Amino acid sequence: MVDKSDKDASYWLPKPKSRTDIQFHVSGVPFNLDRDIIVQKSGKISQLLNEKSEDNIQEFLRNIPAHPNTFELVARFCHGFRLTMSCENVLPLACLAFYLGMTESHSPNNLLSKALTFFEQKILPSWNETIKAFLTTEDIMQQAVDTGLVDECIESLVGKAVNNPYLLGEPIVNFISDELSEDDVIHHNPSARRKLFVSEWQSEDLTILPLSLYELTIHSMNQHAVPPRFVAASLLKYAKKWVFCSAKGDEKMSVCKTNRQREVIEVLERLMPHQKGLFPCTILSEMLRFAIRLEANAGCRNGLELRIGKQLDQATATDLLIPSRGYAKEMHYDIECVKRIIKHFYRDYGSNMEGLIAAAKLIEEFLFEVASDRDLEINAFVSLVEMSSAASMGTDRSSDGIYRAIDTYLDKHSFLTESEREEVCRGLDYHRMSAEACEHAAKNQRLPLRIVVQVLFLVQLQLRDAIAKDMHRTDNKLTQDEVGNDGELNLSEGIVKNEMEKMSNKVIELEKECHVMRKEIEEGCVHMVKKEKTSMWREMKRKFGCINKMNNCNCQVKKKRVHPKLWT
């Protein structure tokens, strides 16, 4: 091309139109170019002028799909000015050259071939340059798709990611949701061999791409052999940049920003690889909270719930604290959401006992956490208690965790009636409670009286069984011992017989008392007992060392203190 001075570059800018000029309108900016010069380079304009269709020409000239800066570069090229191409302008130039028909068949050394050659030789070999060039197609998306430039960029990026997946970022190891900073994600440390060859060059991040381009790129990577754990790392970085960090501390976001973040969270959920364990539950829970807050579609929320459910045994109780209405100060936990997550786990989980035990423990911990919510309704809490009890049934876990949660709920909801308290305790299996928990329950004033009586009855039965086992062990020991002296044997037999008669009498007495207690429970007498009368219930409390007030089970005798940390 022939060099010309910059002062001549104003030739095509708006000025009085001559007879040989053609006026273009590019995004509202008028450009006047000499007819002969533009016809020499543009096959499309040459064709329209030859057809002599004034309407078609005017329509074409009024709607040039390009940025004014790009059209100015084309005008410079047509007038013989030197053109400097870069990753920022080569694709817009190629698209406009294609639209104007600036091909080799119309004129040698035309703009389209020059732009494509520069793109292939200087842009596509480089990861960073390809991303920067790809970014410029956002405003000319349809043209870039029609010319195949979008596919070329994506193919180049996918091929490079297959060869070196670390271009997408280090795989995820852990995530701390409370601190949304660069240290949130703990990555695999590169090996010493890789560190040896690391240069100062830094790869460009895919997160700079707009959502439409990013979605196309990641979708293509999922279709090819890019390792899913590296795709997951890129998805997390994109979520942090465009959802987590951009929403941090922003209580009142604009409608436009909210809609944009909602679209991002929905697209990211669709792009997530389906392999289990690629995203820690903490990340998935954080995304679910944002999906609820941003009112994402049901498919997005259900997908995140399913992913959490598949690896519930790896979650923590905090991960399940999903607010139903944003991040209000008084959180209302989405219990139905958690129940769906739990159902997903047991529907798809195998027979690994370790995972089942971990899930049962998790549900108990979650039950204890939500028990402090004063707005949690009885029906919702009872359903969680029953679900927790069912989860523990297939394991050797006791009901202590469930009892602890019930005790907390009754403490935070002291306004409940007696019948409502009984409803709360409906799912408690006190037969699986430890001795320490039973001792605490027998003195717990928050529990309904009927439950306390049942616990005491259970303690009596356990005591009877213990005595019976002692008798059986003593009897077996005597039959196995060989005594050389007949006199000593007769004396020992007499002592043992006397002790066994005493123990037998105790067992009979306990059985009578248990029978009377059962009868009182069935007849509902426990609610009508007066303080002045001495009943069997009162006698049983006396035997357990409790004072003689019906509603107070503080013991008179010194008993082993329950460890306070278990119940507080």
Short description:
Helices cover 57% and strands 3% of the residues. It has helices at 35-41, 43-51, 54-62, 68-78, 90-100, 111-123, 127-135, 141-146, 149-163, 192-196, 211-223, 228-247, 255-271, 281-293, 298-310, 335-348, 353-370, 378-393, 400-412, 418-424, 435-442, 449-480, 486-523, 536-543; strands at 21-26, 29-34, 172-175, 185-187.
Q: Main traits of this protein?
A:
single chain; 568 residues; mainly alpha; Potassium Channel Kv1.1, Chain A; two-stranded antiparallel sheet; 4 strands; 57% helix; 3% strand; disordered N terminus
Helix segment count? Answer: 24
Rough outline: elongated
- Strand-residue fraction? under 5%
Strand sequence of the main sheet, in spatial order?
1-2
> Could you tell me the number of beta strands?
4
Question: What is the rounded Rg?
Answer: 40 Å
- Which regions have little confidence, pLDDT < 50, spanning 5+ residues? 1-11, 175-200, 326-331, 482-486, 525-537, 539-568
Secondary structural class? mainly alpha
**Mean pLDDT metric:** 79
Major pleated sheet: 2 strands, antiparallel
Distance linking N and C termini:
85 Å
Order of helices and strands: EEHHHHHHHHHEEHHHHHHHHHHHHHHH
What oligomeric assembly is this protein in? single chain
Helix content: 55-70%
Pathway: Protein modification; protein ubiquitination
InterPro entries: NPH3/RPT2-like, NPH3_dom, SKP1/BTB/POZ_sf
Family: Belongs to the NPH3 family.
Keywords: Coiled coil, Ubl conjugation pathway
